[in-house]
Amino acid sequence: MSADTFRLQKVLETFRSSLNENKEVYVKYYIAGWQELVTFMNSLGNVFSFISKDVVSKIQILENFLSGESGSHYVTIQSMVKYELENDLVDLTKRGSHPESGCRTLLRLHRALHWLELFLERLRTSTEDSKTSVMCSEAYNESLAQHHPWLIRKAVGVAFCALPGRDTFFEVLNAGDHAQVVALLGESLPLIAEVYQITEDLYAKNNLLELP
Ligand SMILES: CCCCCCCC/C=C\CCCCCCCC(=O)N[C@@H](COP(=O)(O)O)[C@H](O)/C=C/CCCCCCCCCCCCC
Hints:
Residues 26-174 form the Glycolipid transfer protein domain. By secondary structure, this protein is mainly α. The chain has one domain: Glycolipid transfer protein (Glycolipid transfer protein, GLTP). It contains 9 helices and no strands. α5 (102-124) packs across α6 (132-141) and α5 runs antiparallel to α9. Residues 8, 11, 37, 40-41, 48, 50-51, 54-55, 108, 111-112, 115, 120, 136, 140, 144, 147, 152, 156 line the site of the ligand CCCCCCCC/C=C\CCCCCCCC(=O)N[C@@H](COP(=O)(O)O)[C@H](O)/C=C/CCCCCCCCCCCCC.
């Protein structure tokens, strides 16, 4: 199996590594989790490339901060928020001199993490008759869609129609038979939910949930 092969287990491991004992979220592992998900999306075909390009560009912005001269402030989401707010590095109400701050970039991924949580929970509890496209779009409408303009929502709707059926989807997750995938999803979801909630609370406390 090549290093580029997607495995659900790797997603679980990266999100597990992203939390420390103080419940801080490591940016390095958070973006590594997203990188794994991009690998998965790329394996589904070119119709998803406009989505993966957007995720990759956001991962790149955060990687640049991490490896830059202020990298030590970007080790955790908590330290990033503190540093950027204390140094006026975030456009809070309209886009200005900091259109690609770490806080606003991570917020886009954070909203997408909510979609992932809702989708994976549907997948975990799905039956043979369930359609991935329906599960995906229901999760999307309950989360990310509220933040996307009409044109993006339409393009996303088209992409959902190209999703493989449930059986193929389970195979691509590369985690064994259906029962094993369901078990691993059951293990992964609380971790993803915890990372999501910690970030949500931090952003809410600092009034960062609507960054332009
Ligand atoms: C455990 C694995 C099983 C499931 C694997 C799913 C893999 C999903 C990988 C990525 C999910 C998509 C993440 C999308 C991030 C979107 C961030 C965003 O909202 N960007 C928009 C706003 O950015 P700014 O303009 O403000 O910088 C941007 O405009 C959006 C562009 C593209 C559309 C994104 C739509 C996302 C739809 C939901 C994902 C569908 C993936 C289906 C694959 C199963």
